[in-house]
Amino acid sequence: MFDAEKEVKNIIEFIRDYFKKNNLKGVVLGISGGKDSGVVAGLFTLALGKENVLGVTLPCHSLNTDKTDAKKVAERYGFELIDLDLTGAYDSFINEVNKLGNFTDEELKNSNINIKPRLRMASVYYLAALYTALKGGTYIVAGTSNKCELYTGYFTKGGDNTFDIAVINDYTVSEVIKIGEYINVPHEVLYKTPSDGLSGMSDEDKLGVKYADIERHLNHEELDKGVEEKILRLHNGAHHKFNIPMYKRNN
Prior knowledge:
By secondary structure, this protein is of the alpha/beta class. It is built from eleven helices and four strands, in the order αβαβαβααβαααααα.
């Protein structure tokens, strides 16, 4: 039986201990309007106090509802939420890329999707450095990926897998929801259909498998053979995102 109260207590203790040992002041994280960032924001607010949490909305040709839901999370926990619109930066980048050649939309599709989280992560680190200077103490960046996403490699290398501290990385989607229920994340945020906010597709549509099936796989439960093979292909195909080979000379 999953004990959300116990897990929340342990996470808060983990955060406080890490910040104390490393003489850190605050945390910055992107608030997408989804459950993962909502839960992470709530946990850090409970651990550090609302005055030491900075949330950032980073729209980039995004849905207005994402920003609206992000505001609901900030209002629920009381932390500062700022908006840094990356649409212009993205458009300028794409305009420069178009000068390199005549590429088709299909050729550019994956690159265009993945540059957005990379721009967002660069922005969050910029703000962490800025707030470190403004507040007189070190701010670090929090990650918001859950265990199912990480297992299947559902993240952008150099984008949303770049962070300084992670607190929900060992929890499946259903467990994250249970934690969110316990810490009172807004209902409409917690049960929102998961999507990357980039491709116009839901997470499950992009992955080709359901999060519930990924959880069953992780729990060693019986699955349809085709679904099991799909999950394993995703997992095995993502190894390069975790392990960077570095040659060591033989002396």
